[in-house]
Amino acid sequence: MATRAEIIDAIQAGRNRVTATFSKLSEDQLQSKIHEGSDGWNARQILAHLANRQPTYDMLVSIAVDGNGTPPGGFSIDDWNQKLVEERAGRTREELLEEFQQVHDHLIERARKLRDDQLSFPVILPNRETNLGNVLLGSGGMHSIQHASEVEEALGIDPDE
Fold first, then answer.
1. What pTM does this model have?
2. Interatomic CA distance for residues 5 and 24, integer angstroms
3. Residue 95 is part of which domain span?
4. Can you spell out the DSSP letters for 41-75?
């Protein structure tokens, strides 16, 4: 299980990477399609996805701490994510980055307040069974880094520049 320090470090690393990557994109780059397919997202939509994570984090913590570890029946993460992205369609990059930063600052505070035993509570996802600590580590930090990395790769951006 991920430790509280590892979770917080990962969230901060994800916050920093997303902010650095998306802050330097031009308007044309933000409109560039990153995911293939008719429903594939452009860079702005990926940023909107990362900015809207608060309801997802709330749900994950709730199903672990208050529930039985499983999402509601019939829950589709793809439909959930698409709905939340569409709700942010008119927001500027600056608004999305501000929301992203606030959401992840809040997640860090929430991680600090969770008891150690709560971090070990089970979370049963469609593709695996894990615990809340590992979910927060992955979803709160590594997920953000992964999306920033895929945008950088698709647009030929060196993250170290």
1. 0.91
2. 29
3. 4-155
4. -BHHHHHHHHHT-HHHHHHHHHHHHTS-SSPPTT-
